[in-house]
Amino acid sequence: MKAEIISVGTELLLGDIVNTNAQFISQKLSELGFDVYYQTTVGDNEERLKKAIKNAFERADLIITTGGLGPTKDDLTKETIAKYFNKKLILHNESFDKLKFFFKDKKMTENNKKQCYFPEGATIIQNKNGTAPGCIIEKNDKIAILLPGPPKEMKPMFLNTVFPYLKKQTNEILFSKILRVIGVGESEAETLIKSLIENQNNPTIAPYAKDGEMFFRITAKAKNKMEALELINPISKKIKDILKNNVYAEGNTPIEEVVAKLLIEKNLKISVAESCTGGMVSSKLINYPGISSVFLEGIVTYSNESKINRLNVSKKTLETYGAISKQVAKEMVEGIVKNSNSNIGLSTTGIAGPSGGTKEKPVGLVYIGIYINGKTIIKKLNLHGNREKIRSRTTKIILDQLRRELIKTKVHS
């Protein structure tokens, strides 16, 4: 069954409001097995809305609208849908009684009554968090579901009424598993599994990149979750066999959670010394509950003086090589391990920008240090992007490098 989402509101087109409704509804329709090929955003204009509805029903069996159900003249969704279906708008007395009760302690203007008129024969969706109910209209094998715009009203109405209703309309579901990949770029990862993508049918494989990571969404259409997983799991295994340790987790599990679990499982104490990342590495690790059993210390040694005083970095090393150097990254990580008596140390030093770079040491040059199993590993990074992106990428890379080392490390007694 094909579905389309129409978001109504000039404020959306102006960028005054972020359209989170379409994202939410798309995700829920996907769970139910509906194919969503188009999303439309249209302003509060009857002619344009009428055209959007006509176009949507030429492509889809179901449309879901959000917005345009309020009391003002520019709230036109119900009126326009009613004209499309050639239905009269009639007063729904139960909704009107609830509206009057809502306004019992304050004056209700006449235009509020507009919210209680619905196309004849519509199923009313009660709104427990606002004044504008929604409705479901069915005619000629087409379905229109009208919901209010505010997410705090729309979401509970969708979950409590629309989702169960739509579940009865389809015998299939769409179910997805997401593989999280790091350490390999989007084009390279896609090339490595090219044969799987070229031969996909059900399930399908969708690669996409975000924030320095790669994701593969494997989606199957089936009667239930168990049948979907039977289709998905063989493909998931093939991708893992090809990409090996570059696949670090499934679903919504971030890299810091994987690293934190490994640290706790192996009982390895860690300390972190940061310069350019400004505490971001420590913050990510501390996000994980229970990390206090292994996380000893995290410090931001931003200035040269701090590196000397807190980490025992040699003044001569700083003068000879500069703060952004493999030599300083090495002394930083070894200094934090020695001072905190930890098993593992991490260090970062670099130029996040936007200024401060030179030809020899441009913005995006970063050195990371990892001390583990009695050895020090230093890596040079050349990153691109703005200040926040460079700091974020550095954080993910050093956590990933630590993850790879931890996999090879035996449990610490």
Automatic annotation (TrEMBL):
Highest taxon in the source lineage: Bacteria
Coiled-coil regions listed: none
Residue span, MoaB/Mog domain: 4-168
Annotated family: Belongs to the CinA family.
Identification of the protein by name: CinA-like protein
InterPro entries: CinA, CinA-like_C, CinA_C, CinA_KH, Competence-induced_CinA, MoaB/Mog-like_dom_sf, MoaB/Mog_dom
Annotated CDD domains: cinA (cd00885)
Pfam families: CinA, CinA_KH, MoCF_biosynth
Organism whose genome encodes this protein: Tepiditoga spiralis
